[in-house]
């Protein structure tokens, strides 16, 4: 478990500075490795000797296809092993080498590395940019800004649907981009926080349930689901607490989680999204299009208020307050354990 002040400094640095474009970001390197690994893993899965490992010895076309799918799944296990394990090992080695030069070099590097795994300011800036464009009535630019942070088609969305996309993305990323890396940083310092960020980056790049990545990316998707399981459920509590601070009904937020969270196709994303929906008295979910293909997701929350740009600003406030409460509680827990 790391020193409490390291965690707090990392959180404050991200909250104030964010991710300066002039500095290299570890996620860029992770993305490069993921792309470079894909073709070798697909070639490995096509090797006859590798397919035999999956017990695909029969010659029928159906059996061969099944064997190929199993081979891709087996090859896909290498993704989290290489990237998550490698990120942990490289970060640990870097900090060890810096500590041998001077302890404060290692401390400074750990603070910075942990701050790169958090994205409070980045999320807030992205959400507020869409909010400002909507308030200015500039729908084309608002659609484009939303397209930078979501995978759904945005070219025909009205203000309410743009708002829904922004609120859902900010809410979901309260877990992925803030609470999870903070929790893992507390437990295992920068190495474990960086390992989590690698797992999350893998899921965002290859964890899709489409023809291309359904098999190759299954291990990465499942690994990310497991890593976020506890933080996602904690997020519902802290979003409700943030609602209290912002004079929003915590009971309605928690009731909404209880009713709707498990309807979401993701085992984790429904918790922060339904908590935000309940806190704001809005309904999330509905019909999205991905490259022209319709995807109708379960509705979460009661539509007490129609979706409008102001709900983006309120969601950003819920994100900042819930994250701040979370890091304070983590610091208190760490201080009690250290005492």
Q: Provide the succession of SSEs.
A: HHHHHHHHHHHHEEH
Q: What percent of residues are in strands? A: under 5%
Radius of gyration: 21 Å
Poorly predicted runs are none
Mean pLDDT: 92
Shape annotation:
globular
Structural class determined from secondary elements = mainly alpha
For the largest beta-sheet, the strand count, sense and barrel status come to: 2 strands, antiparallel
How many helices in DSSP terms? 13
Classify the helix fraction into a percent range: over 70%
Number of strands: 2
Q: Major sheet: order of its strands?
A: 1-2
Q: For the terminal residues, how far apart are their CA atoms? A: 13 Å
Q: How many domains comprise the coordinates?
A: 1
Structural notes for this entry:
By secondary structure, the protein is mainly alpha-helical. It has one domain. Helix content is 73%, strand content 2%. The chain is built from 13 helices and two strands. Strands 1-2 form a two-stranded antiparallel sheet. β1 and β2 form a beta hairpin. The chain starts with a helix and ends with a helix.
Question: Topology of this structure?
Answer:
Layout: H1 4-16, H2 26-46, H3 48-53, H4 61-76, H5 78-101, H6 103-116, H7 120-135, H8 139-147, H9 159-206, H10 218-245, H11 250-260, H12 270-280, E1 287-290, E2 293-296, H13 310-338
Antiparallel strand pairs: 1-2
Helix pairs in contact: 1-6, 1-13, 2-4, 2-5, 2-9, 5-6, 5-9, 6-9, 7-8, 7-9, 7-13, 8-9, 9-10, 9-12, 9-13, 10-11, 10-12, 10-13, 11-12
